[in-house]
Design a protein that fits this description.
Elements: E1 4-5, E2 9-12, H1 19-27, H2 29-32, H3 41-51, E3 63-69, E4 75-84, E5 87-94, H4 103-113, E6 121-127, H5 131-139, E7 143-150, E8 153-160
Parallel strand pairs: 5-6
Antiparallel strand pairs: 1-2, 2-3, 3-4, 4-5, 6-8, 7-8
InterPro entries: Acyl_CoA_acyltransferase (IPR016181), GNAT_dom (IPR000182), N-acetyltransferase (IPR051531)
Protein name: GNAT family N-acetyltransferase
GO molecular function, one term: acyltransferase activity, transferring groups other than amino-acyl groups
Length: 167
Amino acid sequence: MIRFDTARLRIRPYREADLPGHRALRADPDIDRFMHWTPDHAAFERHLLAQGDRAPGTGRGWVNLAVADRQSDRLIGDHALRVDGDLATLGLALAPEMRGRGLGRELVMARLARLPETVWLVRAEIDTANLASRALFGACGFTLESEMEDADGPYLVMSRAPRRAAP
């Protein structure tokens, strides 16, 4: 399920009107340093708009979705999802003024409940310096699986089963 609402959030495909808000997310150094978005902003924006309601699945790569305030529909973050067979990988970024309100946990737990039945393991890949994301995913029941490094630097892989209760 691509589109869904939670108590306070609306997860949906990006729209043209979301692009200024997405640019603001990318311009925030506290967000940008932890994200591995393509440096070609225009190409990435075309990618966001072209996705539409495309469901993630094997061989389709990442799907980026708008995280909007449920009441106003204003963009407040980005949610990335990749599903490869029985493995799903999640990512998210929230605007600075939206952090510390439990919205990240609300999003992660809602996404876990809506993953395809075939998914048996869910991962989050987190920059080692991103303590807030590590705490968020830990609070959602993810545990440290491994520490890795790629061209962007070191990162943690945290994982959990999708349908067990969070602590």
